[in-house]
Amino acid sequence: MMTTATPVKRHALVVRLNDRPGALYRAVGLIRRRDYNVASLVVGATDGSGTSKMVIVVDAADLHQIVQQFSRLIDVLSVAEIPYEEDLMELFADVMRRFDLPLATTPKELV
Amino acid sequence: MTAVENTGLRTGAQILCEALVRQGVDVIFGIPGGAIMPFYHALPEYGDQLRHVLCRHEQGAGHAAEGYARASGRVGVCVATSGPGATNLVTPIADAWMDSSPMVAITGQVGSALLGTDAFQETDIIGITVPITKHSYLVRDPRDLPRVIAEAFHIASTGRPGPVLVDVTKDAQQASVVPDWDVEIDLPGYVDYRRVEPDPTAIANAAQLLASAKRPLILAGNGVIQSGATVELLALAELTGIPVITTLHGLGAFPQEHPLSMGMPGMHGWVHVNRAIQRCDVLLNIGSRFDDRVTGKASTFAPNASIIHVDVDPSEIGKLVAVTIGIVGDARTVITALLSELPESMGSDRLDDWIEEVGELRAKFEPRQAYRRRPDTADLQPHDVCAALNAARHARGPSRIVTDVGQHQMWTAQLLDWKRPRSHITSGGSGTMGFAVPAALGAAIALPDETIWAVVGDGGFQMTNQEIATMAQEGLTNVKIAIVNNGYLGMVRQWQQLFEGRRYSGTPLSGPDFAKLAEAYGVRGITVDSVATVDWAIEEAWEHPGVVVIDFRVEREANVFPIVPQGRSIGEMMVDAHTHVPAAVARA
């Protein structure tokens, strides 16, 4: 649990958080702090309850500590690790394909 | 205040002041600047309720707020303007975060319309401090201030305490509204774990484990002091007969003169304490987070022990050390629950063999015998300063000791007696040099009837000594500063000596004549360079009705022993050859 030798693996988390400026930044910051890469992220307001839901896929050796620290955030209402499935990435990829952008050249094109 | 009272209209700045008063704040530490000017404009109206201490650097204001908080147990408040004022608070905010000190930092921010435009003195201070704050608020509407300030103080002071930042735009301070003080703290994502009943199954299991242990130890940390659980801890130790060790931040949580008091563990802990940890079969950690300076190489820490970890922060349990039983809760609540679960009498001879073993370890490695000053020199030793200060504390009235970071910090922790909570204030987790002088300022304001001693190295002193000017302006008389001056960044030099073949890169350090510097600030300065005048100087400082700086010019290359080399097991301690400890001690 506390070693760095654990192999990196793909994890998926569902997080319910306050639908407020800064909430996403705080949550994602915990991933960045550990130098883990976010493979995919979907976030949005859900049901008019003033909360939003985030599904995040992370390549990480271990997410246990991050899950613990997520729940310490005041803007996070609940968090759970869900089984990672390839379907999830396919779903996200579909959305991505709908809004395609060219690879940027220099200077960046505003399209 | 009278003219506007009729309409009920208040500026955001006035609301902010009143919100602080409503939280019971009586002193704030800060420095004005453009974006916080409306707040400063309103402040004189509240002058009889809110004392403003003008610091000389925002880092000083932040550490002063920490010193105030740590000495009093109340929330410390610091104030700065936007941009550089706010970024200068980053170090004390990080320090408060690491040491779980309750703090509310208030910063001015550029006007709402200018946010994100790289306006003059605009810095995204919330973005910068997200990883080192418990929570933060950007306030753009003055109507939010009553709720935001109430929430900020609630979050800072409950659960595991910590810093909260409130960033208020200039226009929010200027705009006038009718404040609604009927605010409800609504934080569905926040649990105050001090108020959560500990899991009864875990309590029962822990009690059983403690009752059946043959070689148990209690490790007490900052959490015991923060929750005010020292009486309960004493009762638990006396009922169970279990020896108690105290971390750097736990010093004072358990009276050191008590027969069950063992001392401090870790990198510069006592050999007998670290040995006891490696031998124990049950370790009850109350309110300490297994910092690497305590555990050494974590995988080799307490290898024979079942570990019970009590912490108010669930994310600490299992973070670094695998535990047998984790109990989330406030130290006092948990100890009280354990006391009611344990039998009323546990048999006086139950732990005889263990107590005897611990006693033998102690007799063999007794700190004040084995780690006394070097006998082979007449030069002034840091140990002489600590011994004299300790003796003077016993003879005099109540006092607190605030230390900085480095060798002097460890000597002070090792060689002074710690008998009551909040008598030892230091920068532990963050290890912030420059902490002591401003933190002593804050402690002195919190406790005007006590004498506050700052013990500081010549390196740390030169980082924040400008706050002596603040003490002079405030007319403080109860701060005494002892500089353990060895002309080096001593702890780094010690590592270079022990582990890097005496390659003293970047560590030799000059400085001004500190006594003259003190006089230039308008306070008393004394230079001590021999053992003969140490006692006199400390007495003189205690007697003098004003701030005193004593420049103790100690032997330059004295070292802190024992020491566990970084990354090694606490079973492997190095000790000083000069103090005639048997060579066998140096090995595990």
Q: Can you characterise this structure?
A:
The complex is a heterodimer of chains A (111) and B (588). Chain A is globular, with a radius of gyration of 16 Å. Helices cover 30% and strands 32% of the residues of chain A. The model of chain A has no long low-confidence stretch (mean pLDDT 87). Chain A has 111 residues and is an alpha+beta fold. Chain A has helices spanning 23-33, 64-72, 86-98, and strands at 9-18, 37-45, 51-60, 76-82. With 588 residues, chain B is an alpha/beta fold. In chain B, 37% of the residues lie in helices and 16% in strands. In chain B, the strands form four sheets. A six-stranded parallel sheet of chain B has the order 3-2-4-5-7-6, sandwiched between helices. In chain B, helix 19 links the parallel strand 15 (399-403) and strand 16. In chain B, helix 4 crosses helix 20, helix 10 (200-212) packs across helix 15 (331-341) and helix 13 runs antiparallel to helix 16.
Strand content of chain A: 25-35%
Read across the widest sheet of chain B, the strand sequence of neighbours is: 3-2-4-5-7-6
Distance between the termini of chain B: 69 Å
What is the typical, i.e. mean, pLDDT of chain A? 87
Strands of chain B, total number:
20
β content of chain B, as a range?
15-25%
Give the integer mean of the pLDDT values of chain B. 94
- Secondary-structure content class of chain B: alpha/beta
Biggest sheet layout of chain A: 4 strands, antiparallel
Q: How would you sum up the major sheet of chain B? A: 6 strands, parallel
The number of helices of chain B is: 25
Secondary-structure element sequence of chain A? EHEEHEH
